[in-house]
Amino acid sequence: MAAKHDLPGNTSKDENDTVSALIEIQKCRVPQQKMRWIVENLECLGRRQSRKRKLNTDESEKPERPYWFRKEVNGFTDSNFVALSYTWDASEYETQNPKPEGHLIERRDREDDWESSVRNSVLERVTRYMQCHDVPLLWIDRHSIPQKKCKTTPCVHGECKQKRHALDAMDWVYSLSDHPVALLGRPIQSEDEIATLSAILSGALVKYQDGKPALDKDTEYRQAKKMLDLLHEITRDKWWRRAWTFQENYKAGLKMTLLIHHDPDLERAKRSTPSGTKAMFGVVPGELSIQSVKFFESATEFCLAFRQHHFATSEDEEKIIHILKTAGRYRMLLSHSTSMSGIIISDVNWRGVTEPWDRLAIIANCCQYATRLDAARLQQMEGNVASLDLSILALRLLNGEILNNEEAHVPDGTIVERMNDLFFDDFRAPKGAKKLTYNKGCRFFDVEFTRTGIKTKGHLWKLGETLRPPRSSPRLSQTSHKDKKQLSEYERTRLKQLSELIRAKHTSDDAGIVDCIKDFLEEDSFVMDDQGSFSLRYRRLMTKAVVRAMDADQTLSLGYLCDPEGEPTVARGIFIHDRDAVESDEPLSQADKDPAYVFTSLWSDEDVDEEYLANELDHHVSIGVRLSDDRSQESLQLYTQEWVLGLCFFTGVPTSDVVFPWPQLKTMQHRMSIADRIKDTFKRAESDYPLHVSICNNDVSTLQEVLGSREASFLLLDGDGCWGTPLHVAVYLDNIEAANLILQVGVGVDVTADSSAHEHRLSPLALAVRLGNQRLLWRLWQHLHSQEEESKANVDSCLFEASINSQTTILRALLSWKEWTTKAKSEALFWAARSWKAYSAQLLTTQLSFPQDVLDKALHHAVDFGPLIGDDFKLDYNGDDYLQQQLLIALLIDAGANPNATDHRGKSALHFLGSPNALNRSGPVVRLNETAIRILLSHNSSVSLEDDVSGANPLHAAAFGSNLNMLQLYLSSCPSEQISQALRSKNNFGETLLHYAAAGAKRDIVEFLLSQGLDVNGINTNGWTPLHCALTPARQGSQLNGFSKSTSEALEIAKILLLHGANPRAVTAEGWTPLHCLSLFASKKKENTELGQFVDNMIHRGVDIHARATFLFWNELGNVEPKYHYWGHEVQDRIQEPETSGAIVRFGYTPLHFSAAHGSISMAKASLDLGADPLSKDARGNTAIKIAANSLLLDDRPSTRNAIVKLLTEAAVT
């Protein structure tokens, strides 16, 4: 039995087990060694022409037996041969040897012949193809590769070694052949099937809607079902279910031809089926010839279209899944940001193979892995350390596939099933590159497993100052150079402009990149398209990406090469990133939403080896990374973030070793499948839960016996507290026989356990919807509606579950029922919007009618940022999520939602999108959804609507929570004559856009507003200036990374305001000075030089270090805790009416008291150093020492409490 391995988890035992196994497996790595001589000496067969029969030949004379001679050809120079793909076992439809005698094959010694072991039907079919297309030779594995194999391990026999080498290089045979041909088993049986297949290949029923395939609106189910059934029948054949034939088809690519047999009486129908000027199915007698890629594309297109149609049943969906698994076209199924490796490995593992360990070679061939694993040695490892699934994982990693090594959630299942969730899948191919092909090469090189993580080589770059390149001049011609690798004159000019900008702005230390660009341009002009190294080709590709970024006015950053310790040295790179920023002389920091570092590596197998075949896949990596805080290791530790394109020059700079630590995975409970967990729960519970146990064991006789007992009525309602009643368990385990028996005794499908917290008392009916178990769902639904008195107590939840779990097929079917309650329909739409399930919402809004208030409320759910619940519960968002949000907004407005509708607080959609709130203090990053904003603005959504809480409009929200680009986008919707007025808009408390931008620490917006003349000393109704707002920790989520602004960010904004004349002596109505505000920033560090200098500057400018102020405490659940996230008018509101928010008020607090209550050690230290009195008392007679010692806010920070009490006590003594 194979050893069971879990992926590294949060426990050291699991991690040690897996990492140890991977390190052991690594010892079995071998380089790809495909022998050139195998391909240079391919053993092919040619069929000897039959001798012409003489006129006087006796008619009774036996016909001549087919004879195949041998001929060796060089596959590199002579590719005019058929490479045959077929199954060694006959199809159920096939007669193995219609003739009594087999074909004769010449022996390798050329001295004799022997009867072929290949079925006559195979050789006859390929002969017809060869004769029709005038192809002289055939390569067929059974005869072209020596088949004798001894049982000695390792073997030194010549023929055994030749077989191993030939199998290793077999993928090259199908790639090089001009005529790769596959023989399918299931024949076409009628003229109607020919017409049906023709309609599929021509896309007769498929139309495109919004860029996606959909069936024509007039399509009848019967017609579409016939097509689906035929595709299913064809792809059920053995050829589609074997791993080796998968490799043969994949490697042959566009050249592979599928042959589907038909009876002779269908020849006329076949040849009369047109495709342009040619016959669609070719002219090979008895065969339909179809390009494999065409078949895959047409089948995929049709299945995707069928799946979207309302009449698809659960049986149809099962067939679609099968067809897409066997004949799915990857470029139509995969996101442009992912790698094909995952789906290739899944498809290979799904298919059958005689020797399971052959999958390693097949995967390596299809994924173009240069590093292989010795399967024989792996199987001989002691303790069965190297399971096949763990070896596949090791194979991927050793070939440079990139793990997403930040903390990640991985669902249940085996390692192979969970494998794709572990890998990085956010590649960004530059425009003009073939996306999936580019992604395939995104791999590390020279990988080694260590206890710490995955070691590799490359260059680390620190992103430096941002660049705003010059705009393109209209005089520059952008001549089209499609498919041209060399740079166009336009691209060369733009790169020179960027070079001049760098030269003008930077010192001689950074000017080295200017020389690099000059040398590169000279090399580009000298080396033609079809020449040059991979490094040159890659630099050309990246240059084109940089130029496109310049033309799109994207932000660029200089990249500084780092030494092995991670310290930046010289500028030698230019990187493109998504961060919206103005030009700045400050380097990017870790707090920015874009990475602060980029790791790059480049590798190509360009050396020509006379003995071995090259790998031919270039490796390139350019990924944003986070550096580990632990610098004690020999090599830097990096964590993946996002793909970052850039133009780099590192000639002469050696690579450095880095380590990508193993990921810490939050695996599901017990890392077991649901079925295994249920069975584990009840494996020793026969006496307590006999019905549950019999269902788990699929013990029908015991189940029937218990159902007939007196206790059955009680046991049927008995839940275990986790998995629910017996009917729930039957649904989980997809045990329809058990479900039928339970239903027969009269249990309702809406039953819930009497005493159970199971899934919020979810009914079995709703559970089937959640799980997508269509077969059981329709059985339960049928039972429900067969009852005389229909119980609808839990039926409404079905609509909700289908909506939030993206069960669109089920949802479409459920919507055909006309008795849903208004509440059920509304809740389904609300939760689809709240969970950003655009396709669910689209089904609901197109098939149901909703009143205005429901649509408006759904729109507000769609623009809010909260946990995305449902089938993929998560607290983070990716690019597809934002696309879903955009689609939701658009379709809800199209359905009638008012883009200017407001929620219960009077906030419109633009309020939310202008200042998106992050979910929690530890992340995630929330990206501004510019497209969603543009959709709203295009539908006349107003930026002047005031909310009911403070009278703030969307411009205030954008000033607080977005960036200058978004604010200007909002302003662009105003008539030009109203922009100045809009910039000076105030809320009901007199707070301007500058107050909001300062509170949100938006430097670019603050500088812009000051340039537009906004009053730097403007006060609100309780005396708050922008300076106070800048120095107060704004509410959680003011920054897009989920945190409040940092002390350094607050000081940065304050310095800008002071530079523009802000009054530091301004005091609020509560008595707060800028130093009171600054004292609310918690800190663990005792020394903060920047903070100390700022406090000193404030005191020298006249701010009173002993000024007294009113302080607000939060008194929730008995806590006495300062609610420091309030700023501006919010502070006064809560001081004036503390009972409404459970707060209490304290008077006579100095900045030092503020620091003591909140645990701001560095601010307390700075205040004490500059003369603050540690024994000064508040209005109740409490010193700062007593306030710190009794502050419940510090209960969970004992070290901070001890440190600040010690600091204050020492100051009081001296």
Chart the SSEs and their pairings.
Layout: H1 12-26, E1 29-31, H2 36-40, E2 42-47, E3 67-73, E4 81-85, E5 104-106, E6 113-115, H3 120-133, E7 137-139, H4 141-144, H5 158-168, H6 170-176, E8 179-183, H7 191-202, E9 206-209, E10 212-215, H8 221-235, H9 243-252, E11 257-261, H10 267-271, E12 274-275, E13 278-279, E14 287-291, H11 292-308, H12 314-327, H13 330-333, H14 341-350, H15 358-367, E15 371-373, H16 375-379, H17 388-398, E16 408-410, H18 415-422, H19 435-440, E17 448-449, E18 453-467, H20 489-505, H21 512-526, H22 534-551, E19 555-562, E20 568-577, E21 597-603, E22 619-627, E23 636-643, E24 646-648, E25 656-661, E26 665-667, H23 674-682, H24 690-696, H25 700-707, H26 712-716, H27 726-732, H28 736-744, H29 764-771, H30 774-786, H31 796-804, H32 808-814, H33 822-834, H34 838-847, H35 852-863, H36 879-894, H37 909-914, H38 930-938, H39 954-961, H40 964-972, H41 979-983, H42 993-999, H43 1003-1011, H44 1026-1031, H45 1047-1059, H46 1074-1078, H47 1089-1100, E27 1109-1114, E28 1121-1122, H48 1129-1136, E29 1143-1149, H49 1151-1158, H50 1161-1169, H51 1184-1190, ...
Parallel strand pairs: 3-5, 4-7, 4-8, 8-11, 16-26, 23-25
Antiparallel strand pairs: 1-15, 2-3, 5-6, 9-10, 11-14, 12-13, 17-18, 18-19, 18-21, 18-25, 19-20, 20-24, 21-22, 22-23, 27-28, 27-29
Helix pairs in contact: 1-17, 6-9, 7-8, 8-12, 9-15, 11-12, 14-15, 14-18, 20-21, 24-25, 25-28, 27-28, 27-29, 28-30, 29-30, 29-31, 31-32, 31-33, 33-34, 33-35, 34-36, 35-36, 36-38, 39-40, 39-42, 42-43, 47-50, 49-50, 49-51, 50-52, 51-52
